[in-house]
Each structure stands twice: as C-alpha cells, then as structure tokens.
Amino acid sequence: MKLYEENQLKVYNSLSKSKELFKPVNDGYVGMYVCGPTVYSNAHLGNVRTFMFFDVVYRYLLHLGYKVRYVRNITDAGHLENDADEGEDRIAKKARLEKIEPMEVVQRYTVDFHDVLKNYNFLPPSIEPTATGHIVEQIEMIKEIMEKGLAYEVNGSVYFDVLKYNETGNYGILSGRKIEDAIHNTRTLDGQSDKKNPQDFALWKKADERHIMRWPSPWSDGFPGWHLECSVMSTKYLGEKFDIHGGGMDLKFPHHECEIAQSQTCSGVTPVNYWMHTNMLLLNSQKMAKSTGNFILPNEILSGENNVLGKAFSASVVRFFNMQANYRSILDFSGDALEASEKGHSKLMDAVNYLDKIEANKTSTFDVNSWKDDCYAAMNYDFNTPVLISHLFEAVKNINQIKEGKASLTADDLNVFSKSINAFVFDVLGLMNEKTEGNNSDKLSGVVDMLIQMRKEARENKDWALSDEIRDKLLALDIQLKDGKDGTSFSIN
Ligand code: AMP
Ligand code: ZN
Questions:
Q1: Which of 15, 74, 461, 486 counts the most CB atoms within 10 A of its CB?
Q2: Which pLDDT score is estimated for 199?
Q3: Counting ligands in written order, which one lies closest to the CA of residue 81?
Q4: Separation CA 352–CA 320 (nearest Å)
Q5: What is the pLDDT of residue 190?
Q6: CA 485/CA 403 separation, integer angstroms
Q7: Nearest of 233, 234, 229 to residue 32 by alpha carbon
Q8: How far apart are CA 60 and CA 4, in angstroms?
Q9: Measured torsion, CA atoms of residues 302, 305, 307, 309, in degrees rounded to the nearest 10
C-alpha cells in the first residue's frame, strides 16, 4: 500500500478559496506546473521562497509515493516591463544596457538560478522548458484561439478578446477581479492602443525595429505575449487538465487569469484542478522585489557579503526559516529572525545526530505512532510546515529526555521514530545536516594543521625538500598555504 492511500491530503485551492481533498486526475500520478523565473537578473530570496515551497510540495508528494511530473519553466522571452502589454522585454532591455546578446543574459541568469537551487538543496524538476524553445507551439495556440473567434489581429499584433470570452467564460474567476476592473497595464498614449478594449491582453506583439528578440509569424516578425508560454508548456507536458499549478500570489492577475482564459478557450475545459499561491517574503516591511532594490540574494546570505545581515548563514538555516512560516502568510526577513532560526535548527540537528546513539529499551515511554500521525496530519493539512516543525521539536524534547535517562523506546519504536524524523527533516523539508559536514571540515582542518606543523619542523631542520613537498602536494589538492608574520594559514580553493 502506498503512503498516499493512507493519507488524506488537503490542498488550499485559490480558485475555490477553500481546502479541498486532493484527488489527482490519474490515480497515483500528479502533474504539477510552477511558473519559473524570468531570467533577466538574479533570483532574489523572495523568488526562492516561492520555489522552495513548491520544492517541499514536490518532495512530500514523492514521499507519499506519487509519480510526479513537475514542470517549472524558464521565462526567456515575452515578459515585458511592469508585467505590461507595452514597453521593453525585460531580457532585451538588460541586453541593450549591458551591450550583450539577449541569450547571454538568459544564460548568465539561468546558470545563477541553478547555482542557487543547488546550494539550497532543491530537487530538479522533471522538465524545465523555455519560452523560446516553444515559439512554434505558441504560434499554433494563437491560431487556435483565433479560429475560435476569441482573438483578433491589429497592425501585426494579436490580442485576446476578453469581453467576448466573458460572454460564456468567467474572466476573473481566479483573481476575483470584476471585468470592468481587469484592465491591462497598457500605455494608451493619446488612445494609441491597438486593443479593442483595455481588458484585452497580447498573445503576439509585433516587434518594432529596435526589438531584437523576434520570430517570424503569420502576423508579423514579433514575439509571444508573456501569458501564452505557460498555457502552451503546461498543456504540452501535463495535458489539457492537470492537478496543481503554482506560483507567487502576485501572479494571480493578470498572469494566471490569462492562462486560464487561453487554455480554456482551446480545450473547452478548466485546465487546473488546484491553484496554489504562495505569499510574499518581505524585507524592511516591504515586498522583496528586484524593481525597488529591496532584496537580498540567496548566495549573498551564504557568503555573508551583504548589507542586511551581520554574518553569513547556512542554506539549511534559511530553508528552516522559510519552513517555519505557513506558505500562505507573509514572512518578514531579518537578521534577528534568521538568528532565532539558526538556534532552532542547531537544536534539531543535535537531536537528529543523537538518534544513532540511542539504545533500545524494553519499554517505550511515549507514543511514537501517534507522534508520527501528527507529523503526517500537519503536512496533509495543506503542507503546514510550521506545525510539522513543532512536532519535530516534540521529538527533540523526547530525544533529550532519552539522553538524560528519563525516557526510553523499544527497538521497533526507535526504528519508526528514527526513520520518520529522517524522512521529514531531510526528504520532505530538504534540510541539510551541516553538523556532520562541519565535523568533516573540522577533521580536514585538523589534518592540514598537522601538516603545517610538520612543514614548520622540516624548515627548522632546513629540510627544504620536505617543506616544499608538503606545500606542493597540498596545492595539488587545491589547499593553499600562506606564510605570514603570525605563522602559516591555509585556504581551500
Ligand atoms: P519572476 O521571476 O519575477 O517571474 O518571479 C518568480 C516567482 O517568484 C513568481 O512565482 C513570483 O510570484 C515569486 N515572487 C516574486 N517576489 C516574491 C516575494 N517577495 N516573495 C515570494 N515570492 C515572490
Ligand atoms: Zn506562468
């Protein structure tokens, strides 16, 4: 029996605004699409909060035994400034300012994004498709929408006819916007907009002569509208109707509203069963955002090179900090909050590291199975990670009591207890055990210090050959010795 058969997972659906029992389209399989980054700059910690939560959703679904196809795209074209239908493409603008190719911008920030994900222990998605890799499919979808009579061409650009769609569909179903308020951000200079109605949004934009990211189409040399790629790629890889679609709350409108309208027009069915949206990470009480300069980069936290924090923090502590908040609540980032998380994280890891040393007893003094059920219940209740963490701290309390001889577990219970803690801490939350990694680096430092001492003795004995050999062999291992007035130090490259 698979774990998902024993667990009643409930998911808060932004569409119905209620927690619903999770039932996948195909038994045992889950299709999940999460809007990925627009790679015109480094992903900041706010972006990472959203992606990290969906990493934990992915991890938990896998833990329950589902076969998951997780698609997270890379937006490398079509996302204009201010999420608008006019203005410059974010990537093209960066390329123009830096005098490099747009694809150099895309490459640089995709590599950076992957570096962050690796440092923060993300599982890679099953497919990571790009907008530019699906231009042909996007043109096909526009043709289909036009054939259904819900899009029109003006001066080489194609727009989705929102008012017409709304005659039978429900534009605003997700964001709750009334049709008259759902006006797209377009610069209507002197009424210049090509749109029939301000609610309409672009499916294809004709490129002006300065716009370097352009592709041929039946309508003009141009580029696809931002919302189209996600409809195309989710349908292509997950089908017309799939289970979970995620992103940050700020994507509900216009992005996800438009996705629903496009997909529904083509297939005739509502494309997504469960819409999930994460709340925002704040810095200085404001949304963390690239555009306002109010952000911190994930790798700057690891290196300590930033103006926000007094010291460096580990990736696992940042993960733990994120998971201490419910994904639907805003979360305030600060050095004090991270320090508190660091203390909690350390207590948790000390307890986890003690698990191997516990010896079984004849009796159990606490109910391991009921504790384990509580952990599953927390995750089953809309991935409630802060409640899961509170149960993990009950486990810490029990481990510490065992340490002091005040509690005990039978061999069977110890086995269940230990397996469950490891599963929730490492497999589901994706935390990393830096204590053991730290032990290894302590050992390495000890060995290098020993070799530095031996080299010092060799030099005192004028045994230059041995002294040079120690230095060169360490250098071959990328360990560089530096002789200074206070003795010899080393760095690992
Ligand atoms: P973008 O690269 O701007 O398309 O954003 C990538 C993802 O990060 C989207 O799902 C956004 O909703 C999300 N996001 C942006 N800013 C924040 C923030 N401050 N906190 C949480 N998620 C965010
Ligand atoms: Zn999207």
A1: 74
A2: 93
A3: 1
A4: 15
A5: 43
A6: 46
A7: 234
A8: 10
A9: 40
